[in-house]
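[STRUCTURE TOKENS]
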Amino acid sequence: MTLRIAVFGENRHEKLDESVQKIYPAGMHTVIADALRSLLAADGVDAEVRIALLDDIEETLSEEALAETDVLTWWGHMAHADVPDEVAERVVRRVHEGMGLIPLHSAHYSKPFRALMGTTCNLLWRNDGEEERVWTVNGSHPIARGIPHPILIPQQEMYGEMFDIPAPDELVFLSSFAGGEVFRSGAVFRRGKGKVFYFSPGDQEYPVYHQAEIQRVLANAVVWARPEEREAAPVKIAHAPRDWYRGEEVTRVL
């Protein structure tokens, strides 16, 4: 089956900041989407990749659009508050139903991710353009396939612990920075029937999404996060009369 991917980009820094425009003249979302198309095609994955922007969010992340989305990547930073609450709620609902979500970098503070985590998602940060080393700590995880150990990012915003998230179901990557901080930079969660992979490298001021290793992580992640082969619906609340499981018609509760 075709893997249907939506790449959400806030697309604010690219419009307002000349230095970001030089790195991403067509937007970070375009670089991410093009990389996914190229790598997934090379991997033999039948995929369709579309772009969703904050300016058209009501259309591109509508109920109908999200119903046709298997995996959603999300980059946001300066305009988290501009995402309508009802859009964030429907993204969360779709994750519970089985859609994969890949929050990127400062999307740790996005409405959908914070709702799914149930915590503040606060962290330490410093933007001095330091080297980041992304260490693989779970080499058997599908997202780590073909990833060098470590990924070296010449310049990046520092994100550091404490990172106020629940304990991840699995930790795939751990980053260290020139200033000595460490950060859980690649963390996996399951929410309802959906999979979530938070991946922190990718500040807008640096060409991180142009790096082949980062692109490979994202390609691996969307394949891993695709819905599993089961009904795309939330777990139901169902009345269960005594001995219901002995009847000819068994009530489905999953």
About this structure: The helical segments are 13-16, 18-23, 28-42, 57-60, 63-67, 85-97, 111-117, 212-225. DSSP finds eight helices and nine strands in the chain.
